[in-house]
Amino acid sequence: MATHKTFCSICTAFCGFEAEVEGNRVIAMTPDKTHPMSQGFSCSKGRHYHHLLNAESRVTRCQQRAGSEWHALDRDEALDGIAAALREIIEESGPESVAVYCGNGVTFKALTMPSVHAFMQSLGSHQIYSSLTIDQPAKIVSTGRHGLWAAGVHSFDSSKVVMLFGNNVLVSGLQGGPGGVPGWRPGALKEARQRGLKLIVVDPRYTETAQQADLHLPVKPGTDAVLLSGMINYLLQQGLEDKAFCERYTEGLDELAREVSPYDLATTAEITGLDESLIRDAATLFAEQGRGTASSCTGPDMAPHGNLTEHLINSLNSLCGRYNRAGDRVNGSLLTPEFPPVAAVLPWEFVPHKLSLDANTRRSRVRGAHQLFGEMPTATLAEEILTPGPGQIRALIVVGGNPVLSVPDQEQITQALKHLELCVCIDGRRSETAELADYFLPASYGLERVDMTVFNDIFWGQPFHQVSQPVVEAPGDASDEYLYLAGLASRLGVEMNYSGGAIDTASPPTAMEVLDLIFPEGSTRVSPREIAADPGGQIFEQYLGMEVIPAMEGMEARLRFMPEGVAEEFACLRESLGAPEMNGDFLLICRRNPHVYNSMCHEFPQAPGDNALWAHPDDIEEAGLGSGQRILVQSQHGEIEAILQKDTTLRRGVVAMTHGFGGKTGGTSVSRLLTTGDSTDRYTHIPRMSAVPVNLSRITAPPC
């Protein structure tokens, strides 16, 4: 038996592991106690990661569907057939009739997304979709509008206070943003509390993280923007803002002050369902501690007014000056050029292309929704397939995703997938979406390929990265997604260009050689090869404690409190507050399950076979229902059945379910309650996926 250093790539925590291998089979995953970041921590999903490789549901041969039957194909035969179908569609309708959808299974992978963009650019199609635009797109919108501080926000280790909106880091490794509690080592929260860190948690549920907090604000779902407006208004009234920072580095504060002025403590308390004193204490505690940040996770972004919520979180941080200044010591990222951290707003022309709203110029032809992060909005994908006319999507390649379970309005997206002339799925298992495909190409999993912790470059808070090598060989035809895309590009006679140049698609380079092209010499402080030299990952100590230098001449950009679109979003908020309540006795929020990751990991031994609907015991009793009972859950768009379970940690009037269930995973799909037409977001039109009004009723057994 051999032991190999590696990491788990199920989510962005990237916890370090030691994989125990016997023959060509991973038999155990043991948390790596020597890992510089996770230090022996892992969640249950990481410890069961190898079950994905060995699951009965895994498919390792290329296949083609004929009616309801699947037939194995030679790899070259499968790629020849797919390329021929793509060529015909492109010749008839142009390259933009071909689209790609990428799911959580690949969006964090180092090679896959750059390869998808390289492939689609070579075709001449902008039709790239992913789970990002139905998850937390508001973070990208807000950053692109508000601006970036070149030296970064206060690190978690240096913070005296942290305010979390919907982050439950003790269950989910997604920390929400730079400066947040590290998801790869949530024990750091306990250590920080012992040194005096103050913790404020805003969440309609008394979560595991909220139970560690100094203040817990059980906000009414969907009113986070109101709460933040009330906090900002109170801070300005009390003069608790960082006046010197705001005067030197921001603009639009007077306009923001006017917009938040209607939200005094009494009004804010009435709308959010919170006590005035709790709102006042939270705002004061955050402002007076001096160092520390506010951040959010999925819930507030999926609820109404997500863009405004995220903008106000950024505004709160800027209002309180929560950024590193000249003379501070920071730990530099590794995947940026060799340049010192600067105490200034990043000039707008230097904002990365994917974060710049001005650079993302494409618009959806059906609703005018905006391109974001170099991708098109997934909320419009089904309509782009179903709506006739120039630009209609006729072919879709699904890479590591399961839109049947993850995209709102299951009936609509299922209809759209059936309408396609060509659907190709690249995945490790034949998911609910793959069952509707024409071709299936088996993908390798993380332990079978080269990978790198690229996604966390700005989140680590340490100059750390890790490159993992395969610990076992991929079975059968299973391989890295970039190899399939290169094979198709070769057959279609197009190039695939990365930052460092094009690859020979007929004879693709190794994964490490592709990483060299993604991060060419001079574009980063260290190269992937240097990182790969230590299989367990390493902290590059020369980038520890880098001194922040003063702003250079010409760096006069300012953070924007009232950029384009924010006034309209405040107006939308006011309008929604004055409108009649939508029909529903309860508000449904999303709830993380510690044993699965959205529609992934349901093969794990401890994965639940159902997704219960959780409600407060008093609400269950008042509704005349019983815990353990099968009930009907109805929204204005659809209905599902669920098992009712009691949860005393929920705010009254709030119920919770987990997204990503349904079909082969068991349970029912929450997406059947949702519609892509219900949105307060004019950028990506992200649907309302949390704070959804629902009614509950007993299912009456049919008469004998």
- Summarize the amount of helix as a percent range: 25-40%
Strand content range: 15-25%
Instruction: Provide the structure class.
Output: alpha/beta
**What would you report as the Rg, rounded to the nearest angstrom?**
25 Å
- How many β-strands, per DSSP? 32
User: Can you give the mean pLDDT?
Assistant: 95
Q: Could you list the spans in which at least 5 consecutive residues all have pLDDT below 50?
A: none
Distance between the termini: 60 Å
Q: What form results from the Cα inertia axes?
A: globular
Q: Going across the biggest sheet, name each strand in turn.
A: 5-4-17-16-15-6-7
Q: What is the number of helices?
A: 22
- Biggest sheet statistics: 7 strands, mixed
Please tell me about this protein's structure:
- The protein is of the alpha/beta class and 704 residues long.
- The chain has 22 helices and 32 strands.
- The strands form 10 sheets. It has a 7-stranded mixed β-sheet.
- Helix 5 (112-123) packs parallel to helix 18, helix 6 crosses helix 14 (306-319) and helix 8 crosses helix 12.
How are the SSEs placed, and which strands pair?
Elements (H helix, E strand, L loop, with lengths): L1 E6 L8 E7 L2 E7 L12 H4 L2 H5 L8 E4 L2 E4 L2 H19 L4 E5 L1 H4 L4 H12 L4 E3 L6 H10 L14 E5 L21 H8 L3 E5 L12 E3 L6 H15 L4 H7 E2 L1 H8 L4 H8 L3 H13 L5 E3 L1 H5 L3 H14 L9 E2 L11 E2 L37 H6 L8 E5 L3 H4 L3 H10 L2 E6 L11 E4 L8 E2 L11 E2 L1 E2 L12 H12 L4 E2 L2 E2 L8 H8 L9 H5 L5 E2 L6 E2 L1 E2 L8 E2 L5 H13 L7 E5 L22 E3 L1 H6 L7 E5 L4 E8 L7 E4 L34 E7 L6
Parallel strand pairs: 6-7, 6-15, 8-9, 8-12, 9-10, 11-26, 14-25, 15-16, 16-17, 27-31, 28-30
Antiparallel strand pairs: 1-2, 2-3, 4-5, 4-17, 13-24, 18-20, 19-23, 21-22, 27-32, 28-31, 29-30, 29-32
Helix pairs in contact: 3-18, 5-18, 6-14, 8-11, 8-12, 8-14, 11-12
